[in-house]
Amino acid sequence: MAEFFQMGGYAIYVWSSYGLALVVLGGLLGFSLAGLRRKERLLRMLEESLPRRRRRTDRQDAGGGDTP
């Protein structure tokens, strides 16, 4: 098992590469999630600033209800 972790003398390069990749991927995930939350807050704020729309009733959907 120790031979596996030593990687034939190249362990310092291999494990540091894995560590750096993990840090970069973690940073990308963090920035992506922060951007998503920021956009969701902006969307919620914009939706709240719009005037409320009335919901259609079944009669309005069918074209007024007076015509056959």
Q: How do you describe this structure in short?
A:
This protein has three helices and no strands. The chain is mainly alpha-helical and 68 residues long. The protein is rod-shaped, with a radius of gyration of 29 Å.
Question: Keyphrases for this structure?
Answer:
single chain; 68 residues; mainly alpha; 3 helices
The best one-word shape is rod-shaped
Count, helices? 3
Largest sheet: none
User: How far apart are the termini?
Assistant: 82 Å
Structural class computed from helices and strand pairing: mainly alpha
Amount of helix: over 70%
SSE succession: HHH
Low-confidence stretches: none
The oligomeric state is single chain
Q: What does this protein structure show overall?
A:
The protein is mainly alpha-helical and 68 residues long. It contains three helices and no strands. It has helices spanning 2-6, 11-49, 58-61. The protein is rod-shaped, with a radius of gyration of 29 Å.
Question: Would you spell out the secondary-structure blueprint of this structure?
Answer:
Blueprint: H1 2-6, H2 11-49, H3 58-61
